[in-house]
Amino acid sequence: MIRCKTLAAQQNSSTGLLQVDVVSAESNFPIQGAEISISYKGEPQSILEQVTTNVSGQTENVSLSAPPIDLSLSPGLIQPYSEYSLLIRAQGFEPVEVSGTEILAETLALQPVRMIPVADAVSPDVPIVIPDHTLYGDYPPKIAEDEIKPVAETGEIVLSQVVVPQTVIVHDGVPTDPTATNYYVPYRDYIKNVASSEIYATWPRETIIANVLAIMSFTLNRVYTEWYRNQGYNFTITSSTAFDHKWIHGRNIYESIAQVVDEIFNSYLSRPGVRQPILTQYCDGNRVQCPNWMTQWGSKNLGEQGYTAIEILRYFYGSNMYINTAEQIAGVPSSWPGYNLTLGSSGEKVQQVQDQLSTIAGVYTAIPRITADGIFGPATAEAVREFQTIFGLPATGVIDFATWYRISHIYVGITRIAEYS
Predict the structure, then answer these.
(1) Closest CA to 280 of 50, 386, 289, 271
(2) How far is Cα 106 from Cα 64, in angstroms, rounded to an integer?
(3) Where would you tag: which of 132, 137, 195, 345 has the fewest CB atoms within 10 A of its CB?
(4) How far is CA 239 from the centre of its chain?
(5) Which helix (H) or strand (E) holds 410?
(6) pLDDT under 70 in the chain at which residues?
(7) What was the pLDDT predicted at 9?
(8) pLDDT value at residue 156
(9) Which of 266, 308, 278 is nearest to 217 (CA)?
């Protein structure tokens, strides 16, 4: 099949947005003053934009040409996103090259960049190359598996309850490839990466939610059953579409997808009487058909017709599919209280989150420092709003579920309670 990989973005007036987020791979601290040169993929000498990161390690939102949004709303042979190359330089760090950052029309793309301090560099730089999106490129279809795995009560299965892991180990290849790299990836970052690789961020929100739920349930099934470890492997999941999901090292994600993941990351799909998360398999529904599985293009069409996420999922997987929540979230200093914290709130949970925000503000200095007095006043609300602005959450000044766990995630990262690689 011939696909059109022309620079369609140069031939129309549609645009998308790009923000580059730069941190130190050593400390997870933001890097201020990093210089980013942006060019079309394949034309690195023709610089389109040059931007610099602020105190939060972020660039301004850069407007870039993109193909018309309609191309991402129906299957076709024309590439529905434009591709850009980035060169990131910062004093004291090894330069980073990214080739293939994908920009969709009317969508904010977030390109994470982790820079290695010069003193820590042990090998020549290898550019990050982002391959085709799975809905556009050619990838092997999923090899069918039973959606519920046999679990023998032998002690081989470590988990007795569903736990959202702190980190998943992604084997970047097929299971049997011993040369493939294993990457340690925070769970939510993994889900955001996969969803950004497998659906288009321009799709209806309920469609995005349905697909994210399917991705998370599949992943948590791999975690719960220790599927690969019980076969003698030392990883959680692979990046092969034949076996699992497409995860792409270093790729950009999208704000609309990231926000959904932050809101529901402790959810998965259940059937009555089944303890384990359901291994929810799917296909694109255009080049590959998969009866009794969700199709991605079909989910997009149902979303456009006004179906809710659970209605989309039940349409494909049957009426006895339910959304469940995990009993435990690993690696967080303290669990969400179960209700929003806002002006006038007080108590231990307020003080805990104030402590975390104050620590984060020591690194992300745009966030005002606050006193951890256990009283949610205007100063705390302002610190929360600034945090939300930096980390892509709605700037409400209210600590809801997504904000609570995003604060925990950043706090853990910069205090090195967890070792993210």
Answers:
(1) 271
(2) 10
(3) 137
(4) 14
(5) helix 401-415
(6) 1-12, 121, 124, 152-159, 417-421
(7) 41
(8) 47
(9) 278
Measured CA to CA, the distance from residue 130 to residue 85 in angstroms comes to 10
DSSP 71: G
How far is it, in rounded angstroms, from Cα 259 to Cα 256? 5
3-state secondary structure string, 99-157?
EEEEECCCCEEEEEEEECEHHHCCCCCCCEECCCCCCCCCCCCCCCCCCCCCCCCCCCC
What confidence score (pLDDT) does residue 120 get? 75
CB 201 within 8 A of CB 193: no
Answer yes or no: are the C-beta atoms of 247 and 170 closer than 8 Å. Answer: yes
Give the largest Cα separation in the chain, rounded. Answer: 63
Contacts 24+ apart (CB under 8 A), 172-176: 172/238, 172/239, 172/247, 172/249, 173/238, 173/239, 173/240, 174/238, 174/240, 174/242, 174/243, 175/228, 175/231, 175/233, 175/238, 175/240, 175/243
Taking the CA atoms of 185, 191, 192 and 198 in sequence, report the sign of the dihedral they define: positive
For residue 417, what pLDDT is reported? 53
Residue pointed to by tokens 């205090």: 415
Of 157, 196, 356, residue with least CA distance to 276: 157
Q: In angstroms, rounded to a whole number, what is the distance separating the alpha carbons of residues 283 and 292?
A: 10
Q: Tell me which H or E stretch contains 406.
A: helix 401-415
pLDDT digits (tens, 9 = 90+) for 238-286: 999 999 999 999 999 999 999 999 999 999 999 999 999 999 999 999 9
State the sign of the Cα–Cα–Cα–Cα dihedral 182, 186, 189, 195: positive
Q: Which of 41, 44, 38, 37 is nearest to 5 (CA)?
A: 41
Residues contacting 301, CB < 8 A, separation 6+: none
Residue with token string 């303290």: 334
Cα separation, 34 vs 13, in Å, equals 29
Q: Which amino acid is at 210?
A: A
Q: Tell me which DSSP letter residue 317 carries.
A: H
Report how far residue 95's alpha carbon sits from residue 118's, in angstroms, rounded to the nearest whole number: 9
Element of type H or E holding 96: strand 96-103
Contact 236, 294 (CB under 8 A): no
